[in-house]
């Protein structure tokens, strides 16, 4: 008997790999009118839309009944003013979908030469990400470009996909085209895919889907430990992390990086711990921003909770509900970190 979720993992890797090639090739060709500002003031590019179209189209061919919770929607592209951008997105998505079959690919997933899709098929694929989420049944999450600000700076970003079943993440895939394969050996170049299947461990692959390496979070000491945190101070409080670092006697400076590449780095031992603290009231974390990272860290032997020590709840809808931040670390570090976070939170409350 084959292992649980073997096909889901294979399809997810194929989809993320095609989306990674698309986003990294589009970066060099991006022009000014190919980025929009969304209602929440965050940027979205032709790369985000086209990558969601590609992943969603592949999922629809492989698992037609599965709902999708995706970050983007095609409303702006259906407006007459969005025609130029839409045409570019359709061309990019079709180029990615019709590229030659690679390792593990199957043409029944709607990919390979000759498998062009129509405009309306691809816009519908983007909009199929409108599922409301919930606690029952299967659903996929797509973040076609996580860390769009990092992508636009030419720094880290990630193509993120997960399968959630009855609120529990079962498969997670994170593609990081700009991440060094091995930080100790820059000559090996960039581009990694991280995968995890519940109960089957975590792995790092090359972008072409070769050389899987199992990942385990190494043990840390205060001297070897450092934080992985957002570049954007508006996404996670840098000063709060500094206070937690001080409480833990951490001497190394934090590594700042956009996107769920941080979870990949934690899983392979590039940094000691991931800490994300709300910067104000109102922002709710999205499930697509943490589901693949959570399973990756857990399968690499770590723990992921919020600042109360509770597991993240992926069954509440498109968001994680009220925002209590995220703490992710190896088993030996997590309890100490939780204690320090709670102490720092109590200090903050005492001040106001
Ligand atoms: N105020 C906020 N607090 C926390 N995360 C945010 C906030 N605004 C946007 N984000 C999301 O944080 C994620 C990136 O995290 P990081 O900074 O750690 O890389 C993105 O998905 C980004 O959304 P978006 O995709 O809309 O840019
Ligand atoms: Mg994101
Ligand atoms: Mg995104
Ligand atoms: Mg975004």
Automatic annotation (TrEMBL):
<dbReference type="InterPro" id="IPR006239">
    <property type="entry name" value="DPNP"/>
</dbReference>
<dbReference type="InterPro" id="IPR000760">
    <property type="entry name" value="Inositol_monophosphatase-like"/>
</dbReference>
<feature type="binding site">
    <location>
        <position position="143"/>
    </location>
    <ligand>
        <name>Mg(2+)</name>
    </ligand>
</feature>
<keyword id="KW-0479">Metal-binding</keyword>
<comment type="similarity">
    <text>Belongs to the inositol monophosphatase superfamily.</text>
</comment>
<dbReference type="InterPro" id="IPR020583">
    <property type="entry name" value="Inositol_monoP_metal-BS"/>
</dbReference>
<feature type="binding site">
    <location>
        <position position="146"/>
    </location>
    <ligand>
        <name>Mg(2+)</name>
    </ligand>
</feature>
<keyword id="KW-0460">Magnesium</keyword>
<keyword id="KW-0378">Hydrolase</keyword>
<dbReference type="GO" id="GO:0000103">
    <property type="term" value="P:sulfate assimilation"/>
</dbReference>
<dbReference type="GO" id="GO:0008441">
    <property type="term" value="F:3'(2'),5'-bisphosphate nucleotidase activity"/>
</dbReference>
<feature type="binding site">
    <location>
        <position position="145"/>
    </location>
    <ligand>
        <name>Mg(2+)</name>
    </ligand>
</feature>
<dbReference type="Pfam" id="PF00459">
    <property type="entry name" value="Inositol_P"/>
</dbReference>
<feature type="binding site">
    <location>
        <position position="289"/>
    </location>
    <ligand>
        <name>Mg(2+)</name>
    </ligand>
</feature>
<protein>
    <recommendedName>
        <fullName>3'(2'),5'-bisphosphate nucleotidase</fullName>
        <ecNumber>3.1.3.7</ecNumber>
    </recommendedName>
</protein>
<feature type="binding site">
    <location>
        <position position="71"/>
    </location>
    <ligand>
        <name>Mg(2+)</name>
    </ligand>
</feature>
<dbReference type="InterPro" id="IPR051090">
    <property type="entry name" value="Inositol_monoP_superfamily"/>
</dbReference>
<dbReference type="GO" id="GO:0046872">
    <property type="term" value="F:metal ion binding"/>
</dbReference>
């Amino acid at each position: 008997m084959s292992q649980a979720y073997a096909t889901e993992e294979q399809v997810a890797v194929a989809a993320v790999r095609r989306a990674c090639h698309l986003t990294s090739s589009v970066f060099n060709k991006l022009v000014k009118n190919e980025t929009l500002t969304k209602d929440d003031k965050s940027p979205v590019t032709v790369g985000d839309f086209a990558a969601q179209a590609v992943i969603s189209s592949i999922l629809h061919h492989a698992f037609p009944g599965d709902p999708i919770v995706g970050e983007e929607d095609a409303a702006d592209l259906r407006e007459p003013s969005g025609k130029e951008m839409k045409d570019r997105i359709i061309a990019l998505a079709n180029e990615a979908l019709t590229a030659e079959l690679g390792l593990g690919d199957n043409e029944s997933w709607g990919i390979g030469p000759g498998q062009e899709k129509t405009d309306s098929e691809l816009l519908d694929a983007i909009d199929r990400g409108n599922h409301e989420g919930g606690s029952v049944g299967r659903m996929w999450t797509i973040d076609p470009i996580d860390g769009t600000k990092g992508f636009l700076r030419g720094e880290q970003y990630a193509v993120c996909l997960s399968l959630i079943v009855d609120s529990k993440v079962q498969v997670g895939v994170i593609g990081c085209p700009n991440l060094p394969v091995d930080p100790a050996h820059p000559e090996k170049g960039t581009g990694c895919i991280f995968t995890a299947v519940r109960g089957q461990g975590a792995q790092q692959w090359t972008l072409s889907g070769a050389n899987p390496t199992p990942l385990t979070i190494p043990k840390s000491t205060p001297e070897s430990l450092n934080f992985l945190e957002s570049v954007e101070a508006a996404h996670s409080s840098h000063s709060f992390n500094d206070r937690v670092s001080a409480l833990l006697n951490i001497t190394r400076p934090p590594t700042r990086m956009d996107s769920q590449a941080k979870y990949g780095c934690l899983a392979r031992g590039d940094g000691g711990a991931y800490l994300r603290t709300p910067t104000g009231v109102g922002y709710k974390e999205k499930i697509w921003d943490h589901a693949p990272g959570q399973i990756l860290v857990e399968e690499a032997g770590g723990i992921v909770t919020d600042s109360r020590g509770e597991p993240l709840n992926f069954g509440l809808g498109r968001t994680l509900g009220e925002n209590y931040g995220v703490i992710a670390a190896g088993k030996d570090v997590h309890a100490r970190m939780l204690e320090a976070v709670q102490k720092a939170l109590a200090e903050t409350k005492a001040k106001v």
